[in-house]
Amino acid sequence: MITLRPLRLLLGLMLLLSACHKPAATSETESPLTTIAFGSCNRQDLPQPLWDDILNNKPQLWVWLGDNIYGDSDDMNVLQKKYAVVQQQPEYQKLVATAKVVGTWDDHDYGRNDAGKEYRMKQKSADLFWNFVGEPANSPRRKQQGVYSAHTYGPKDRQVKVIMLDSRFNRDSLLRINKIYQVNQTGDVLGEEQWKWLENELRNSTAKVHIIGNGIQVLPEEHAFEKWANFPAARKRLLNLIASTKAQGVILLSGDRHIAEISRTNYPGISYPLYEVTSSGLTHTWTGTFVEEPNRYRVGPMIAKLNFGVLHFDWSGPQVKVDMQVKGDGNETYLREQIQF
Fold this sequence. Notes:
six-stranded mixed β-sheet; 14 strands; 26% helix; hydrolase; Metallo-depent_PP-like; signal; Alkaline phosphatase D family protein; PhoD-like_sf
C-alpha cells in the first residue's frame, strides 16, 4: 500500500523534472527567421553608406563578422571611443532598434593587426566587444576564453542556429615572411574549450540550418593572406566536425578580406554542397589595381565594391530554401546563390 506522503513526493518530483525539460521559450515561440544580414570591415572614421540599404532588407538579425571597428590599440579607452562612434551612427541605431545583433571579432577590433593568443589585452578587449553587441553584464559568456556564442531562432521545426566562432583569442602564432603568411601545419585556431563547445552545439542541435560565422575565410586556400588554410590541421578538424556531427544545412560566413565572394565545395561526409559567403567591407575595399585572385572554390566573380550579405529563408515547402546574396550601395545585388536543405 502506497501512503499519501511518498505519493506526493513522487508527484512533486515528476513535476520538477517536467519543468526542467521544458523547451526554451525563445526558440519555441518566435516566428521563423526569414532574413539575416551580415558584414565586416567597418572603419568608424569613414563614411558608412550601406546602413540604409541594410535596413531596406528588413533583417531580423544583424551579424558582425569582425573588424567591426579599427581599434588597433592596447589602450582600451581608444577602443571604447571607437565603438561609441559606431553605436552613435543614426542608421545603425535604427538597425539595433529593429533587429537582434550578434557577432564575433577579427584582428582590428581584437586590438592588434593579425594578433592571436599572444595579445595581452584580449580579456579586457573581450569585455568591450560584449558591451558592443549587448551581451548582459551577468552573462556566463563574459567568463569564457573567447567571444564565441550560439543563438537559436524560430519554432522547433523551422529553427536556424547561428554559431559565432572566435578565431583570435586562442589562435596559435602565424609567421609572416615578405608579406606572405606561412603555414603552421599543427597550429590551432579555436582552443580545446571552444572545440568541445562547438561539437556539442552541432551534435545536439535540431536546427534545420546552421550558420557558422568567424572573422577569416575557411574554404579558400590559394591567396596569401590570413585564412584557416594557414592552419591545415585545424581547418580539416573543422570540416570533419561538420561532417561527423551530421549537422543539417551548414553555411559558413566570413569577413576580413576587403572583397566579397561565394565559395562552394563538396566535402566527404557532408551530404550537401558546403557554401561560404565572404562579405567585406562595409566602409572600404581593395585599393590599387584590382586583380582577381585564384580561388578554386569560388562561384561567380570576386567583388571589390562596398558590400554586405543577406540570407533569405523560405519555409513554405518541405525543404527550407536559402537565398544567399551579396549586395551593395543602392541595394544592388552583386552575387546570388540558392540552395535547399
